[in-house]
Design a protein that fits this description.
The protein is 54% helix and 12% strand. With 328 residues, the protein is of the alpha/beta class. It folds into three domains: 146 residues, P-loop containing nucleotide triphosphate hydrolases (Rossmann fold); 46 residues, no CATH class; 108 residues. Strand 6 and strand 7 form a beta hairpin. Helix 1 packs across helix 2, helix 15 packs antiparallel against helix 16 and helix 16 packs across helix 17. It is elongated, with a radius of gyration of 28 Å.
Length: 328
């Protein structure tokens, strides 16, 4: 259990997740207030990863519901195992015969069989899906409802009962209440606007692209063998790329992939050739690659020309006087 906001930062950092005080505060309050958290932001900034490391840090089982268009209650909550019901019916057919023995009409026989509904509509024939698994878990769990913005508005409305009372109603059985209340994180890539009713039930957290200083710390944590100067060049160039008018802006995951790719190619610095050869690692559309190639050539020329234009500044940087602001 987290004992403070700084404790969240420390515990998650030990698991390799570097977060700022704003993120840590929301995580801490979610635990203290037993409130779900709706995490929004661009793809690849660490929303799902945050839920994973929080679950690990708290020692909770992570139960994940991946949302998609057309997702319904049966896939998210529970399903009846009809094949098992049929098997039991075949095995118990002698008992069924005994139950209806002596019935003078079909209606009377149906009533006798109907009186035994609880035998065939019980927990033994239910296949629990992620929502029910989280609610019926004997130990406190972490429920991750991932990419909730991809689900239909009808499914989002269905979630309101779960998030308000942590209970579900099964017509054949009744209301099932949470054995121990799960900690709930919902993620959204902002594909569509979430309803006010859903947001009202949640703490809200927006995770954006990190600052250069924070991204450098993340890169150091996830790719510890990278040279300092190469890490700085990667982060600097990634922020320039994000300022371009791209169809798909690269995120933190692409930064890490690019750094690992450069290390695999034994690159000790970034030049125009290595950028052109590896842009496909961070950019997923050919139009974005072409645009970045034309723009980055100018940026790289400026970068390589800088030492000649300002040798004094370079010398100062080499001495370490300019590195106070770098969180490395």
């Amino acid at each position: 259990m987290f004992d403070s906001v700084n404790g969240v930062i420390k515990d998650l950092g030990e698991l390799g997740y570097i977060c700022d005080k704003r993120i840590a505060t929301v995580v801490y309050l979610a635990q203290q207030l037993d409130k779900p958290v709706l995490i929004e932001g661009p793809a690849g900034v660490g929303k799902t990863e945050l839920a994973k490391v929080v679950a690990t840090s708290l020692g909770r089982e992570l139960i994940r519901l991946q949302c998609y268009e057309g997702l319904d209650e049966a896939k998210a909550l529970y399903e009846w195992e009809y094949s098992k019901q049929l098997l039991y019916t075949q095995i118990l057919k002698d008992k069924v015969s005994e139950t209806i023995a002596g019935a003078e009409t079909l209606e009377e026989a149906a009533e006798r069989v109907g009186a035994e509904d609880s035998v065939f509509f019980s927990n033994r024939f239910i296949v629990p899906r992620p929502l029910m698994q989280a609610i019926t878990s004997e130990k406190p769990a972490m429920l991750l409802i991932d990419e909730v913005d991809k689900s239909d508005p009808e499914f989002e409305a269905f979630l309101l009962e779960i998030l308000s009372d942590f209970q579900v109603t099964i017509p054949e059985i009744g209301t099932v209440k949470a054995t121990s209340q799960p900690l709930v994180f919902l993620t959204s890539n902002d594909a569509r606007e979430m309803s006010d009713a859903l947001k009202r039930r949640c703490l809200h957290l927006w995770i954006d692209y990190p600052s250069p200083e924070l991204e450098l710390k993340i890169l150091d944590s996830r790719v510890p063998d990278i040279a300092q100067h190469l890490a700085e060049e990667v982060v600097s160039l990634m922020h320039k790329i994000r300022n371009l008018d791209l169809k798909k802006i690269p995120s933190i995951s692409e930064t890490l992939d690019w750094a690992r790719a450069l290390m695999a190619l034994n690159a000790d610095s970034i030049d125009e050739d290595i950028v052109n050869d590896t842009l496909n690692v961070i950019l997923k559309y050919e139009g974005d690659v072409a645009k970045a190639q034309s723009e980055l050539s100018k940026l790289i020329e400026k970068k390589t020309a800088a030492p000649a234009a300002a040798p004094t500044k370079e010398s100062k940087s080499d001495s370490g006087a300019d590195k106070k602001g770098i969180l490395h």
